[in-house]
C-alpha cells in the first residue's frame, strides 16, 4: 500500500461500525480510547485521562476547565454512549426561569462530539438539528447522552438527548453529522 493510499484508508476507517476506533488516525487506538503522545503540562481529558496529542480543548466553552465563563461539563463513556450532567443556572436563561436554547444546543453538540473524542477521533460538526420538546428550567439537573446512529466513511451520524434527571422527560433531541479528520486536517482546522 502506498503512503497516500494508507493515509486515505486511515482517514476513512477511523471509526468502526460499532463506533470503536478501528484504525487510529495518529496511531492505533482501541475501543476503550487508548491515548498516545505526551499531554501538555497539566492537561487532562474530560474523562481524566491524558489527551491525544493536539486534542486538548482547555478553553472550550462547554467543557474547558480553563474557560472562566464556560459550562465546565465533564464527559465519560458508559455502555457505549457518552454521558454528562448539566444543571443550568441563572446566567443560562433566555426568558425568565427558562434556559436559552443555545445552551442546550451547545451541551448536546459536545456530548455527541465527545462520543468520538473520548475514543481518540478528531472530528467537527458538519450540521446539527435540534428539536426542543419542553422547556428546561434554571436549577433543574439534566442528563445528557450522545451516541452514534450511523457511519459512512468519514461521516458519523450522532444523536444527543437531554432529559430531566428528576423524571426522565426528554427536553431536547439533537441529530448531527460529524466529519472525522486526520492529523493534518485537524492542524488546519485549529491552526496549529
Descriptive notes:
By secondary structure, the protein is α+β, with helices and mostly antiparallel strands. It has a single domain (3-33, 73-190), classed as Thiol Ester Dehydrase, Chain A. Helix content is 18%, strand content 28%. The chain is built from three helices and six strands. It has helices at 3-12, 101-117, 183-190; strands spanning 76-78, 81-86, 122-132, 142-152, 155-164, 170-181. Strands 1-2-4-5-6-3 form a six-stranded antiparallel beta sheet. Strand 5 (155-164) and strand 6 form a beta hairpin.
In short:
The chain has helices at residues 3-12, 101-117, 183-190, and strands spanning 76-78, 81-86, 122-132, 142-152, 155-164, 170-181. The protein is an alpha+beta fold. Strand 4 (142-152) and strand 5 form a beta hairpin.
* Strand order in space, largest sheet: 1-2-4-5-6-3
**Count of DSSP helices?**
3
Query: In the CATH hierarchy, what is the class?
Result: Alpha Beta
Number of domains: 1
Beta-sheet strand percentage? 25-35%
Number of E-type strands? 6
By CATH, the superfamily comes out as Hotdog Thioesterase
CATH architecture name: Roll
Q: Which secondary structure elements does this structure contain, and how are they paired or packed?
A:
Blueprint: H1 3-12, E1 76-78, E2 81-86, H2 101-117, E3 122-132, E4 142-152, E5 155-164, E6 170-181, H3 183-190
Antiparallel strand pairs: 1-2, 2-4, 3-6, 4-5, 5-6
Amino acid at each position: 500500500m502506498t503512503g497516500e493510499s494508507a493515509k486515505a484508508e486511515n482517514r476513512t476507517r477511523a471509526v468502526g461500525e460499532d463506533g470503536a476506533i478501528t484504525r487510529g488516525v495518529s496511531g492505533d487506538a482501541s475501543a476503550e480510547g487508548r491515548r498516545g503522545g505526551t499531554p501538555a503540562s497539566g492537561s487532562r481529558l474530560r474523562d481524566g485521562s491524558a489527551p491525544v496529542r493536539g486534542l486538548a480543548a482547555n478553553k472550550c466553552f462547554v467543557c474547558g476547565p480553563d474557560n472562566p465563563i464556560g459550562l465546565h461539563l465533564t464527559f465519560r463513556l458508559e455502555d457505549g454512549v457518552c454521558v454528562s450532567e448539566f444543571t443550568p443556572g441563572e446566567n443560562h436563561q433566555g426568558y425568565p426561569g427558562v434556559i436559552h436554547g443555545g445552551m442546550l444546543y451547545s451541551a448536546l453538540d459536545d456530548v455527541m462530539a465527545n462520543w468520538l473524542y473520548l475514543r481518540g477521533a478528531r472530528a467537527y460538526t458538519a450540521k446539527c438539528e435540534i428539536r426542543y420538546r419542553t422547556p428546561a428550567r434554571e436549577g433543574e439537573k439534566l442528563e445528557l447522552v450522545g451516541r452514534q446512529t450511523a457511519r459512512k466513511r468519514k461521516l458519523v451520524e450522532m444523536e444527543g438527548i437531554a432529559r430531566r434527571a428528576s423524571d426522565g422527560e426528554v427536553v431536547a433531541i439533537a441529530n448531527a453529522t460529524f466529519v472525522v479528520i486526520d492529523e493534518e486536517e485537524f492542524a488546519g482546522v485549529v491552526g496549529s
